[in-house]
Amino acid sequence: MNYLLDTNILVAYSRSANLANALETKLQLFGGNHNLTISAVTIGELNSLTHQNNYGKKRKNEMEQFVNKLFKININIRDILDLYGQIDAFSQGKFSEKTSPFTARNMGKNDLWIAAIASAYDMTLITTDKDFNHLNGEFFEVKYVDLSKF
Fold first, then answer.
1. Dihedrals φ, ψ of 16, to 5°?
2. What separation in angstroms does the CA of 125 have from each of 39, 64, 146?
3. Which of 23, 31, 33, 89 has the smallest number of Cβ neighbours within 10 A?
4. Which CATH number describes the domain made up of 2-149?
């Protein structure tokens, strides 16, 4: 299976060995036969989080080793740029090619990039963020992980 991992999934895996083990038991992302990908946006978000939370050198190194195991996708690709606009318009209820059966919503700009990548490459997005749910089945598949169950 081709998965795009949202930033919050990587953060969840890095929080503690117990949480990582529980997630892996349930999701079998790294133990399975999956193509795991992250976006360039996720690398930027992780970099910001390491500074905001004042991660120590050990935690930064662990995060970097983790990220190095994953395939990374740049956003400067025409299909991704086009889909960013379509997904943003759809989320705002203003995309003439698809009707939106929900109240218009503002998505974070980084989430829009991540969504555009998932859509461009027909990947399932794995996330702990419900902000992508309205895109499920319209642009790509969303696999929501409820961390409260772990």
1. -155, 155
2. 11, 21, 14
3. 33
4. 3.40.50.1010
